[in-house]
What does this fold into?
Amino acid sequence: MDVPREGAARRRFIRRITYGGVLLAAVPLLTVGLARLEPAAPEVERSTVWTDTVKRGPMTREVRGLGTLVPEEILWIPAITDGRVERILARPGAQVEPATVLLVLRNPELDQSALDAEYQVKAAEAKYADLKVQLESQRLTQEADVAKVQSEYQQAKLKADRDEVLAKEGLLPDLQLKLSLSAAAELSNRHRIEEKRLAIQSDSVEAQLAVQHAEVTKLRALAGLKRSQVDSLRVCAGATGVLQELPVEVGQRLVAGTILAKVAQPQRLKAALKIPETQAKDVVIGQKALIDTRNGVVSGVVSRIDPAVREGTVMVDVKLRGELPRGARPDLSVDGTIELEHLEDIVYLGRPAFGQPGTSVGLFKLAADGRTAARVPVKLGRSSVSTIEIVEGLRPGDKIILSDMSAWDKYDRIRLN
It folds into this structure.
């Protein structure tokens, strides 16, 4: 016979309520706890990361740029006048002297105008000679007139002197004496006028000859210009060196000013480097530089800095010192390093993949066991080609990952395996 148990149902109800309350309280606590758990640190292959150790000591600041070797002096040879390429006598790479003929142009119109100018000079010279003869004849005629008047004056003066003596002795009437004296005075005036006319005519002769001589000089200069233009159709190197470029072909029609050739001296080269504009602000003339030609390294100094920025870079010229490595030639690609300054006793590190001078970045610092790394904030200072100054966040001896860790930006810790 079953015996009814009093209060059992009530106890089960209370137990269920208790369990339900505990469960309801545990769910939020468990959620909060799980939310506060850090995500599991991802694993990174040790062989894929590049590490370096923070150091303390001297650091040389440098900037690097790619560039080419270019001649210090380049002679660009333009076409002096229009013409057509008739012959090419030299090709790029040839050793040339100042009188070496590179190519020959042809311009029939210029030849004709030069010939016309020569004939104009000859005609002007003949006209000058004819004018000189005519003026000389006129001068001689005037001198003859002066001499004739002078002779008549002398005769009239002698007659007047004679008549004056006769008149004093009463042998000649006063009227006759006055006529003699008047004739002498008239011839005296005529003689003086003719002498002035002769002097004026001499000045006129010089002026007329000067005008014609100036015309001859002008035509000679014009003919000389035409001859020089004709001579320029035989294009010469103009300097000792190597023919670098000759961008024309036989039969090509050229206009005045077209570049015909480029001549350079391969023994005198400089390096033209392209320095990033963000780093060029610290470059000054006179700084030391090293130029790597891939076949040797040669030293130099900064000789010129381009004031303009082109495509994010500044052109810097480095004057080379010492003997050039074998194989150095114009347009050879080089790698240049310019020394900016030498810093003493600073904390520095190899330059990370990301991080500009004067900025703050997060870098992964290896733990003592070398198996994990944690992100730490680091303030960077002055930079060089491969090193950068550490202002805050690291101490000498810390090992830092320098590789690109952007794939793990959302993690503060990683594990290395």
In short: The mean pLDDT is 85. The radius of gyration is 52 Å.
